[in-house]
Amino acid sequence: MNNIYNAIQSVGLSNTKVTTVTAMILASSYPPSMGAFPDETVEVMKEVTAFLQQTGAPIMVNVYPYFAYASDPADISLEYATFRAQKPIVDGKFKYYSLFDAMVDAYYAALEQINAGNVSIIVSESGWPTAGNSPYTSVDIAQTYNTNLINRVTRQGTPRRPNQTVNAFIFAMFNENQKPDGVEQNWGLFYPSMENVYQLFEAC
Fold this sequence. Notes:
By secondary structure, the chain is an alpha/beta fold. It has one domain: Glycosidases (TIM Barrel, Alpha-Beta Barrel). It has six helices and six strands; from the N terminus they run αβαβααββαβαβ.
């Protein structure tokens, strides 16, 4: 990141930000206020976030409620995973109606623990597969999740950062038919033929 930053600065791109993408690399994430990085990643994350603080750049994080739900459906409801919970998970003064918010805030809590709470988060990937792991995957669930994701991030921030909207990228544009069979083939909004897997945007 330092090398890229120095290179683009040298050609006058002074307003261009340099960052990196991370997975949800947390040793603990429940409740969200207990979010913490694993011991073996703390020093690296301190170095990364020091660079981001120095340059004013955000960090990018892949946030996938699907994986948490599919691995523990007994304790995580589909409604909570798809932004439809009626009763919140209470964490101190914060109330969580979606697993997405809880995951983002757990990462914020982990940043705070390494004195990097002023680094903002952009969600670099989020989505839901349409097939490959029934009953946890379907077109209807994927459409519900991504529709509610759009509504959520365009409306307000998370309980821990209520005034800071969350920019997010949906994974993925296309189903990837050359990946191994299973969920990995089925995250797209479109088939490789460019037909809709399901309708998400009016213009698509």
